[in-house]
Amino acid sequence: MKRKQLLTRGFFKENPIFVFLLGMCPALAVTSTFETSLGMGVLVIFVLTCSNIVISLVKGFIPEQIKIPSFIVIIATFVTLVAMFTEAYAFELYESLGVFIPLIVVNCLILGRAEAFASKNSVADSAIDGFGMGVGFTIGLSIIGIVRELLATGQIAYGVYLPLGEPGFLFNLNWFIGGDFNIADYGISVFALPAGAFITLGFLLAMKNILESKRGEA
Amino acid sequence: MSVAVFFTALASAMLINNVILMRFLGICPFLGVSKKIESSIGMSFAVAFVMLVATLFTYIIYYTLLEPFDIEYLRIIAFILVIASLVQFVEMFIKKFSKGLYKSLGIYLPLITTNCAILGVAEGNIIIDFNSSYNFFGGLALSLTNALGAALGFGLIMFAFSAIRVRLDAQNVPKEYKGVPISLVVAGIMSLAFFGLQGLI
């Protein structure tokens, strides 16, 4: 397979969230805002790329019987690194992701790529695959995050959880309305609740199916 | 420490902070193994067993090994190793001593290693830090109560959801919603219902 294809196939065609339904726990839990989704995605990109590289480096030395435990330890090492790094440099993100940072260890996507790809392919290919799949995961998370935050508050904020400078808005419906009307008072707050996560993902998956069947007909 | 503390912990872990619907732990088995009622019950028992034993071990390891030596940052690695080896051990144990149980639970056991509910509950118990508000054994008892409540909540939702899903299969659902999408919408409505229990305690 060509390198470019290896990189981009995770973005949409083999998207981990929408096509393979991998890593559903973070996809539902951390997507109440766009920023937390993006933050989670970046952490997963880092862990997935690094663990794929290391696993493909050591693939010849690990006996078949203890393959999975060894992979998990390698992944857990990088997750520990990421957790400490986040706590030091993006404390708001660390607080808001909470238990889901350690839980990157048991994200099926990472173990799945280690088992299905990195343990069989070269280092460079594994790194590209890990990065591509991580970006695909981030795209999936961000789509859910954008939809949920927009429906819940009418705005998309930045700078609250990630250290991106002054807090502000990437997008705000108030810009189009003007006057005394404040869209934040009219948000559908259920979409920020756990219930909204399930419903949003359900509708997005159905939308994906509709798009696919449309493309099939055309 | 009174009975009320334990009851509150149990009810809160089971209903108010339900692992699946409120804390989003264990979504993979929730969507993957809920197609049949029997398999959802089997999965729930396997999870309950591993969750309790894992909580016991991780609690003891954290407070007798990691904390005295100031190596708390190793807990992710330590916990996941405990859980992975525990699952392997439980599988071997059940296989040796109860063929019937192995047949009904065996296939779910390997899946449990990557079930985030186990690690999430074990980790959550450490974060709440019962140990500082009670003594070592009091904290252990509360952690186990918390794990039991989480396991009961997991079983309750798995059972209810698989029963709904069996009926859903017989319904005429729009074809784009068939399978996972409609299940997620149903789970959302269940989650909304459970949100109503928030004021219980």
Your description of this structure?
The complex is a heterodimer of chains A (218) and B (201). By secondary structure, chain A is mainly alpha-helical. Chain A has one domain (3-157). Chain A contains 9 helices and 2 strands. Chain A has helices spanning 3-8, 24-29, 34-58, 67-89, 91-97, 108-118, 123-153, 174-177, 194-217; strands at residues 155-158, 168-172. In chain A, strands 1-2 form a two-stranded antiparallel sheet. In chain A, helix 3 packs across helix 4 (67-89), helix 3 (34-58) packs antiparallel against helix 7 (123-153) and helix 4 (67-89) crosses helix 6. Chain B is mostly helical and 201 residues long. Chain B has one domain. Helices cover 76% and strands 0% of the residues of chain B. Chain B has helices at residues 3-16, 27-32, 37-66, 75-97, 99-105, 109-112, 116-128, 130-133, 136-170, 180-195. In chain B, helix 3 packs across helix 4 (75-97) and helix 4 (75-97) crosses helix 7 (116-128). Chain B is globular and about 60 Å long. Chain B starts with a helix and ends in a 6-residue tail after the last helix. The chains are: A mainly alpha (218), B mainly alpha (201). Chains A and B meet through helix 2, helix 4 and helix 9 of A and helix 2, helix 4, helix 7 and helix 10 of B.
Low-confidence stretches of chain B: none
Helix-strand makeup class of chain B: mainly alpha
Element-level helix/strand string of chain A: HHHHHHHEEHH
What value does the average pLDDT of chain B take?
A: 84
- What structural class is derived from the secondary structure elements of chain A? mainly alpha
Task: Produce a short descriptive summary.
The complex is a heterodimer of chains A (218) and B (201). Chain A is mostly helical and 218 residues long. Chain A has a two-stranded antiparallel sheet with strand order 1-2.
